[in-house]
Amino acid sequence: MSSVATEQSPVHGTSHGEETGLWSWITTVDHKRIAIMYFVTATIFFFVGGIEAMIIRLQLMNPEQNLISPEFYNQLFTMHGTTMIFLVAMPMAVAFFNYVVPLQIGARDVAFPRLNALSYWIFLFGGIYLNASWFVGAAPHASWVGYATLTSSQFSPGVNTDFWFISLSILGIASIAGGVNFITTIVNMRAPGMKMMRMPLFTWMTFVTSFLLITAIPVIAVALIFLGFDRLFGTVFFNPTMGGDPVLWQHLFWIFGHPEVYILILPAFGVISDVIPTFSKKPLFGYPIVVYAGILIGFIGWGVWSHHMFTVGLGPIADSFFVAATMIIAIPTGVKIFNWLATMWGGSIRFTTAMLFSVGLVAVFTVGGLSGIMHASAPVNLQQHDSYFVVAHFHYVIVGGAMMGLWAGLYYWFPKVSGRFLSEKLGQWHFWTTMVGFNLTFFPMHFSGLFGMPRRIYTYSADLNVAIYNQLATVGALIFAVSAVIMVVNIVKSWRSGEKAGANPWDAPHLEWSIPSPPHHYNFPELPNVQSREPLWNAGEREQILAVTMGEAKEEPHMPNPSYWPILLAASITLAWALVMTGVWWIIALGIIPVFFCTLMWGLEPAFPEGH
To answer: Are 372 and 466 within 8 A, CB to CB?
Structure first.
């Protein structure tokens, strides 16, 4: 039987009063536990994707090497890209959404706790399904962007591409469910007085990102369904010889793919918009402008997708529109950067590891943003398209931007999750090895790209004279790998024996720091009444809130029942999609039966204890 941690004697690393044991984690619907599972799973996939990247870098370290075969190389870079986008960057951001947002808005959980658990289990099973392709010798090999007609049965026979489009279809369900959940939570479950313009920036960016999720993911879902019908049932959506159009895939993929960039980066922007004010001891400069800039990025992000397609031949009118839109979207992004700098200006800055990663994000993302503006120019884009210059650009944006922001959040909120600090000494090592390794890996790629090294090739000629840049990149990748190991060592060591942290060790201004670390499983004994944007920096309001949030509940709130139906439904959905690979209609139909059964049982199960 599972043991129970009482409020007087909480189990370290778990919420007060919450059951422990493996079964309690499998059936949990607590947003905090689900957040931890998201983070741990995404970190494991981070190392899987990192190993794939290291093999790629070793193959490219010197010209005309044959450490691996061309086919294996194609599988590696396809799986690396897919893993890092869909199994690392997105779910790691969702881990922070899950843990932090309900605490920041004064809620006891998300709006749909069981749907939240379902999202996690679908993500896990989708990731396992994708990586199972390695074990049957059929890893996807047609690039993570899946361009038609490379993904057609003619050019990609076998089940490699089937694994790819089916696993992404599964993962899309988790993303849409999560987006709906967080929108509903933020709109309906804010504490009394928590007006929209009083919400912390991280919650605001979660809100914008969630809208992007529920609108962008269906677009790629349509593209994947078309691809599946072409491969399995003989349709010709992307077959030009039969009236189809391979450029249709590019439009559908990039209509999703460019909002996807902001799905990845906006959460990181939200993190550092909370971290920088805390460690500058100043409210965020121009709070409303930063909010509006984030919303504008979400809107304008829908109008820039075809800058990925300047080489397709859309014509001067279409190209001109996307040139203008791509340049315009740099304005709200630049505004945010100046707001962060203005927040730090004249502040009492403490260079904790969280602050270092925040400043590091501003620095490296600016480099990626500037090269993005270069690509807004169609003639420049034509020259750099499909070269390693583009590889450098998007890694500066996604790794330098999104991942550094999330690591800032890791060091910032870890004391709240565990009740202990991460080691600042190891944190400094993590930061500096990350900065050195990251820049040494990706900055030389600008030069190899300008010298003409194309993307997606497994080797290159010595006549290109780019060996030195590839050697530097490989050494940098090794240092970057060391930084990831340091991060994990720090997490494990600090979780077990790190210095204990109080409820608000950073003297931060927002609601999540008004409750114990780690929090009660019900978060707040009573919901606080919020009167300002920085409630814990206003003396009178702080005392009033702490009197409510740090006390004992008069009557312990009744939280949703744990449930095993989310994991069973997620397994059923994964099985149903896996059977699509057979291409046999009656087998596919049979696969839907467990989905209906689990959905029915989910609906019949009471969500709360009897009588509540």
So the answer is: no
Q: What is the C-alpha separation between 172 and 471, in angstroms, rounded? A: 37
The domains of the chain are located at: 30-560, 561-612
How far apart (Å, rounded) are the C-alpha atoms in residues 465 and 453?
9
Q: What is the pTM of this model?
A: 0.94
Sign of the CA dihedral with 478 first, then 479, 484, and 487 last: positive
How is 19-56 classified by DSSP, letter by letter? B-SHHHHHS---HHHHHHHHHHHHHHHHHHHHHHHHHH
pLDDT at 70 over 80: yes
Residue 464 near residue 451, CB atoms below 8 Å: yes
16-52: string of b/e by CB count within 10 Å (b at 16+)?
bbbbeeeebbebbbbbbbbbbbbbebbbebbebbbeb
Answer positive or negative: Cα dihedral of 202, 204, 206, 208. negative
User: Count of CB atoms within 10 A of residue 136's CB?
Assistant: 10
Q: Which long-range contacts (CB under 8 A, 24 or more apart) does 243-251 make?
A: 246/147, 246/148, 246/149, 247/309, 247/312, 248/148, 249/146, 249/147, 249/148, 249/151, 249/223, 250/147, 250/148, 250/308, 250/309, 250/312, 251/305, 251/306, 251/309
- Start-to-end CA span in the chain (Å): 25
Phi-psi category of residue 392: left, alpha or beta, with phi > 0 → left and psi -120 to 50 → alpha:
alpha
- Give pLDDT tens digits for 264-322: 999 999 999 999 999 999 999 999 999 999 999 999 999 999 999 999 999 999 999 99
Which residues, at least 6 apart from 336, have a Cβ–Cβ distance to it below 8 Å?
269, 273, 290, 293, 294
Residue burial 497-530, b: 16+ Cβ < 10 Å; e: rest: ebeebebbbbebbbbbbbbbbbbbbbbbbebbeb
Topology of domain 30-560, per CATH?
Cytochrome C Oxidase; Chain A (1.20.210)
Contact 278, 506 (CB under 8 A): yes
What is the pLDDT of the chain when averaged over all its residues? Answer: 93
Locate 594 and state its tokens: 């467990």
**Distance, CA of 488 to chain centre:** 18
Between CA 493 and CA 574 the distance in angstroms is 35
Check: CB of residue 101 under 8 Å from CB of residue 206: yes
Which segment of 28-37, 357-366, 432-441, 545-554 scores lowest on mean pLDDT? 545-554
Q: Residue 459 phi/psi, 5° resolution? A: -155, 180
Query: Phi and psi at residue 2, in whole multiples of 5°?
Result: -70, 145
The DSSP-derived string for 587-602 is HHHHHHHHHHHHHHHH
